[in-house]
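Ticket #4471: complex job returned nothing on first submit. Input attached below:
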Amino acid sequence: MRKNKLGSRIIAFTFLLILAIIWVVPLIWGIVTSFKSEAEFSTIGFKFLPINWVLTNYTELLVNNASTPLFHWFANSMIISVSNTVLVLIVVSLSAFAYDRLQFKGKNALFYFLLATMMFPSVVNIIPLYKIIDLLGWVNTKWAMIVPGAAGVFNIFLVRQFMSNIPISFDEAARMDGASDFTIFRKIILPLTKPVLYVVALFTFTGSWNDFLWPSIVFNDIDKMPITPGLQLLQGMYQSQPTLLMAGAFIAIVPTFILYLFAQKYFLQSMSLSAGVKG
Amino acid sequence: MDAQVEKNNIKHVKKDRHLTPWLFVAPHLIIFAIFFLIPVIFGIYISFTNWDLMGSPKFIGLANYKELLFDNSSVFYEQLRTGLKNTFLFVVISVPFCIIVPLLMALALNVKPKLGKFFQALFYLPSLFAISAVVIIWNLMFNVAYGPINNIFHLKTVWTGTQPYAWIAIVVVTIWWTIGGNMIIYQAALNGISKDYYEAAEIDGATPTQQFFKITLPSIRSQILYTVVMTTIAQFNIYGQPLMLTNGGPDSSTSVLLMYIQQNAFGSGQSIAGIASAMAIILGICIMIVSAIQFVFLRDNSR
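Support reply: We reran it on our side without changes. The output follows.
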């Protein structure tokens, strides 16, 4: 039986190693290609690594900021994603607290109604949502991406589920001491809810950063758009300069990559968290 | 008198306590109403109009749906057929891979091989990247002259410009980009199965295959159901991969419905938001029907 186990470990390792090559090659290839010069890339023939490592692709992106202001897009994306995350955290934690801890008329009916709307395919509301953004004067502004994302229900469900495991006696003790609902929320519940709020924050940030269809609809002003629709423009503009495109793509994935390095634990546990409450 | 004041105070406090919960939920409810509920209702309504996104919508009853579903001289009829066919084709090809590949990964990781943590982190990583960055990288991977795939295997395949390679490219990119989440879900589920079951099965002489189908699969059934439904919904919304990898080609063979919806509503030229909305609602109905069917077939009947 021991031998059997060792055998299955070797098979598993080999299988994973083959897949790992498929997963890692595009990443490495993309990154190293961004350090090749255009001339070397198109004339020398296929070489995996650069002969001369150069930064020209990055400097060209930095300098050439009229038609494809990549670093501008990067800043726009950063402002949008951070603001959206902060707004979602505030809105979600307040709501989750009320649905879990407070009593009000029609609470359960309202909550189940919200949950039921999650079944509704979001594709239906893209066109009318654009009109609402237009009426608010938010086309080509960051608001178009910051606010609508806070309408979601799933995070409220997730956080409420987590809050329901905090003993109610904590609240009661504080209430005896004369604490208001808001104080209980702020001083007792919120600190204990931190782990799930990290998860919400990470997923909101990456979701916001990576959103593609919606920003390509609400932005047509090149200076105002975030980086994901920007990259599509970049691809159209520099079809003949793949090394430059790689530099652009690499810049766009750096923030979420860094976030992942530091908060891998939360990313990985969150997936099982969300499947767990649903399953 | 004092008692009266006291009573009033209590009443006042009580009234306050009725109001505060609403203050907590109000920010979300307002945003939810303006940016979800109203658009959804409005979206259903405009599918019955000839709206052009700017003027005021004029009610035309079922005309959009009639044209889309039955008028075979209409360009939109063709678009719906092509778009829906390609979207369904993509769902049918990609969803099994997006379930089976991460399940195999999770099973392999579950025997705790060397470098397990590294493999897990690596497979999950691409799901954190924007689709436009992912496609830019893979476009070059598939490049005819310069791409590593053709160069390493000495091929001359025109990946994104000929079929069936265009679909293969789109599905490969999709698998690479999206399977991380499902893998983590399966890992957690596999971890939760008691070792006793397997030991008992081994004593009874069950083969590994039997163990997989009799113990493993039934134990993670609810996670399979969840991932199948969620993955299917996600893949129905395919947009970025064909848009940037193949631009719908060759010959509209990878043009998916969301591309037509986007073009008709927001593309250059006159907006035809009414028709586009009707297309979106037809897509939405397809998604709901398929989810419902999956739910009925995959849910655990024994419980």
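Chain B touches chain A through 98 residues (CB under 8 Å). Closing as resolved unless it happens again.
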